Amino acid sequence: MGVITIPQLADNYAYLVVDESSNDAAVVDCAQAQPILEEVNRRGLRLIAVLSTHWHADHTGGNLELASKVQGLRIYGARAEGGRIPGLTDPVDDGDQIKVGNLRAQVLGIPAHTNGHVAYYFPALKALFCGDTLFVAGCGRVFEGRAATMVASLSKLASLPDDTQVFCGHEYTEKNLAFALTVEPGNEALRKKYEWAKAQRQQNKPTIPSTIGEEKQTNPFLRLHSPEIRAVLKRLDPQLSDDPVAIFAKLREMKDHF
Ligand code: ZN
Ligand code: FE
Q1: pLDDT at 1 over 70
Q2: Does 19 participate in catalysis according to the annotation?
Q3: What is the pLDDT of residues 10-54, one digit of tens each?
Q4: Ligand showing the shortest atom-to-Cα distance for residue 171
Q5: Residue 221 C-beta-side C-alpha neighbours within 13 Å
Q6: Which of 31, 51, 113, 141 could form a disulfide with 8 if both were Cys (CB 3.0 to 4.6 A apart)?
Q7: From 19, 24, 54, 117, the catalytic residue
Q8: 117: annotated active-site residue
Q9: pLDDT computed for residue 146 by the predictor
């Protein structure tokens, strides 16, 4: 078990991270409290913490209700979000270590979607919770940072071990893969993943987790060096430079209008 996926709203995911040695659990991002509380009760877990990745309401809208119903609940989130995370009790910074029961997580600062966006990385579970920064075959919109900030945040995540499982904030995979194929149609791994994702979604199954290794093979935003992607983008914009940040910015702009 370790990680339990709980759909929220139209296409968000919340995740319960469970320390099986103590039955302590934390929820990563919560838009709606009720489904989380039901799952916790059904499994006989003890909810001790909320781990917020960033301040947006589709990731934190359930915080206050959880806090009002669970005694002693801790709510972690980035200090750099500047007080916008509802119910925050434990501000965290890049490099901090936190504990869920006997499980340890590292806080990774990965700004750009928001200024204080963080990921939670549990080495023992080989699990990364990255909110709206890295998606399966995509990345979050750059709302509060610059393209260069997002490139740095994504490469920080890409430097984790290949077998790290990627649990992201939204089910955007099918559309992301469709876009990815327009910029890298010759990528065989990408083609296969698209067929797989379509089949998963037809059966109403999630496409998460992915892995860092798979993302490096298929996610255009982690493949800024790909000769095919560069060639496709330069056909559209002959002035485009080889600078990875420029390639990223062009890809992000194309995806925004896809
Ligand atoms: Zn967001
Ligand atoms: Fe979101």
Answers
A1: no
A2: no
A3: 999 999 999 999 999 999 999 999 999 999 999 999 999 999 999
A4: 2
A5: 33
A6: 31
A7: 54
A8: no
A9: 96
Q: Catalytic residue, from 24, 29, 58, 117: name it.
A: 58
The C-alpha atoms of residue 191 and residue 181 are separated, in whole angstroms, by 7
234 Cα–ligand 1 center, Å: 30
Assign residue 169 the CATH number of its domain: 3.60.15.10
59 assigned to active site: yes
Which domain does 205 fall in, by range? 3-256
Q: Is 105 left (phi over 0), alpha (psi -120 to 50) or beta?
A: beta
What pLDDT does residue 208 have? Answer: 98
114-159 tens-digit pLDDT: 999 999 999 999 999 999 999 999 999 999 999 999 999 999 999 9
How much distance in Å is there from the Cα of 161 to the middle of ligand 2? 25
Which member of 19, 24, 29, 170 is catalytic? Answer: 170
